[in-house]
Amino acid sequence: MTDSSTNEPLLAIEDLSVHFDGDGGEIVAVDHVNLRVEKGRTVALVGESGSGKSVTALSVMQLLPYPRARHPNGSIRFRGEELLGAGPRVLRRIRGDQVGMIFQEPMTSLNPLHTVRKQISETLLLHKGLSESAARSRCLELLELVRIQDPVRRLDSYPHQLSGGQRQRVMIAMALANDPDLLIADEPTTALDVTTQAQILRLLQDLQREMGMAVLLITHDLTIVEKISDELYVMKDGRIVEQGATASVFEAPREAYTKQLLSAEPPVKPEHDFTGRDEVLKAEHVRVWFPIRMGVLKRTVDHVKAADDIGLVVRPGETVGIVGESGSGKTTLALAILRLEKSRGRIVFNGREIHGLDGEDLKPIRRQMQVVFQDPYGSLSPRLSIQQIVEEGLVAHGIGNESEREERVIAALEEVGLDPASRYRYPHEFSGGQRQRVAIARAMIMQPRLVILDEPTSALDRSVQVQIVDLLLRLQAEHDLAYIFISHDLKLVRAMSDHLIVLRGGIVVEQGPSERLFKQPEAPYTKALISAAFALEVSDETAVRQ
Amino acid sequence: MKAPDRHTFLGRPVTPLTRRRLQNFRANKRGWWSLWIFAALFVITLFAEFVANDKPILVYYDGGFYSPIFTMHPETTFGGEFPTEADYRDPYVADLINDRGWMLWPLIPYDHQTVAWDLPEPAPSPPDAEHWLGTDDQARDVTARLIYGFRISVLFGFTLTIISAAIGVSAGAVQGYFGGWLDLLFQRFIEVWSGLPILFILIILASIVEPNFWWLLGVLLLFSWMGFVGVVRAEFLRARNFEYVRAARALGVSDRVIIFKHVLPNAMVATLTFMPFTLAGSVTALTSLDFLGIGLPPGSASLGELLAQGKANLQAPWLGLTGFFVIGAMLSLLIFIGEAVRDAFDPRKSIQ
Questions:
Q1: Which structural domain range is residue A470 located in?
Q2: B261 in contact with A at a CB cutoff of 8 Å?
Q3: Is A157 found in the same domain as A98?
Q4: Which of A383, A397, A442 to mutate to probe the B interface, most B CBs <10 Å?
Q5: Domain-located, residue A272
Q6: Residue A125 belongs to domain with CATH number
Q7: Tens digits of residue pLDDT in A159-213
Q8: What distances in angstroms separate CA A57 from CA A79, A139, A387, B268, one per listed residue?
Q9: What's the pLDDT score for residue B328?
Q10: In the predicted model, what is the mean pLDDT of residues A376-381?
Q11: Within an 8 Å CB–CB cutoff, is residue B83 touching chain A?
């Protein structure tokens, strides 16, 4: 360790605590944290949601909701200058000039009403006092730096005209506009598709090398940490539990929590042969086309082909994984199978053609075909108790009387690993993982034959994801369930599925037994997906860009 | 097995969400007190017959009890001459009763239509010990008319608000949930309908029939329901794509149950926030119609008619001032309550 009085690091956080005034008293979000970022280094701050990593980063910029947030003790020094309690003038000089910040959500962190040029040049005009034309050429330079395609045209684009990856590049350009010495990246790639994620990470790495910046990277994804960071701080419940050089921590983690994080990788599902078993679901030539109507008469001029000519077969005990990036038609396909979206083609469930059925005729089918959605916060009604949520299907189908339903709810909650006494509580009292268990209980209580899992784990932390996958696999084995597992996370897909379908732009790119696809992918797009997901490598950019 | 301790309100279990809203409502002190004051005034005026009446609450005469408010007793019951209903304010009848018993009078011994024949000066007479707020130009007690007028205003407001909310919410729900052509046609209809001039329709109506409480209610209702459609429709359009609504549809839950159980509670937040303000608006609507003379039939107690008298009798300022202060206070109370309701339903507002 260097002596801080003689050799001050770029950023030194010492003994920092952050307290919030909550409904039920004070909440300690960050508890006596020490952290140092040296010039030109990449430091990763890792932890699960709620561990206080983002709060730590925001307190560097003094962007917390003061006075509800307080710092009872600690200091944050940037180049020896104290930032805690610094006046607005000092902070304005630091923010956006010497310290840049990238946020997680590229969809909401750009102002939808301003062009890219206006957003980037805002900080240039503010801090550098550049003229309009100088700012414009600097913008162009920055857009080239972040390798946006066709930067001249992008200058006058609005955020909605950009893809998620492009928006994140614009965010990075904004953060880099004034050559900051420190870049704080708060989950910069979490909201992006895997292939885009790999590109953005490589961009960040290159930029850091070229500009000699220090990067404070906040993430929950250990693959990213291993790939790009020099030093690592592991955070849990507001405390730093382990720190050190990334390579040595990965090699020999000291703390139990770090070991748990590192080992929280889903297993690979063993191969299984399902041929010969009857089919639960057989879909052929499923098409979902959304018409594009133009003109006064609303003539259909073209279609958006959200799902085009897709076929799949699921057998009891089998999981069919559907992977693809956002916009590939995964969810549309699921909704079509659930008969919640109009489609064409043939869908046979339990030997019965269900395409074209609606209303009351569908009701018996609905009993045996269940769904678990992605967002555990959005898929449970906040106004109903867990009992009411889980028994809803039983009530809708008129199954059992009140006490029988209660018994079945208790059994279902026990089955998914929740305390049955919690059935009187409300969704907001549960964590994300617990809510997802409730959603699974709601599906399982109907004793379905087929469950469609639409990104059931993507809103959860890795260790919780693994638990949910374990639960789903156990339920599948116990009840001989057929699953359709939709995900963009290839590691989870590998843990869950027997058969794999790769979708892109509504079209099946490749399909086959899951292990074969992972070991010998044929389509270039599949190869690119797999290398991005498992090694965070940009393998073949032409396969990804269209 | 019994549920563990949940929060309760008025003996009924409430969800934590409702509890937080109640706390937020209470946290707005001004609204909380306004609610109590308004509730007290409303309950008192609801029993206006026992507060201001030209008949006694209870009569004891010759060993028997009589309650003239509920039953009609002819003068002959008390030893008088006429077989018509006894006029208890008549000194002759009063003497007859007081000779052989007693009478328990309400606080204000005047009905809203009682004409005080014994005024020391020509009506309208200024406030004195007998008539606390004076009398109007037909020698009727202003306090008594206020009490009855307040009651009819508030009842009219409540009825109009509740019925228009019921119609508006249903219409908005249907449009928002089903969308498509139904929504399109309904929206165009509302645009045309809201363009009709209400005041002229009322004036025309007043020349055909004599408008009474129900006529006015009906005509105002034809237009007031549209205020709710916009917010409710928007909420339904938003909520029908929520994942828990989708999950319910995947479970096979019927549209009707989804609307009532999952979507409507979202829309009710906007509706309930809107309601106190609509209530204030309805009260004002009736008052202004009465002021213009195309409201309730002549003779009925109403705040608008009091204002009109104030305008016609500038030499008797107690008429106008009383009307002004009562209407002002009533609307302020309603707005304060409305603000507290708005706070209670505001998801961004945490308890301070």
A1: 281-368+448-545
A2: yes
A3: yes
A4: A383
A5: no
A6: 3.40.50.300
A7: 888 887 888 888 888 888 888 899 998 888 877 777 778 888 888 888 888 888 8
A8: 16, 26, 39, 39
A9: 93
A10: 82
A11: no
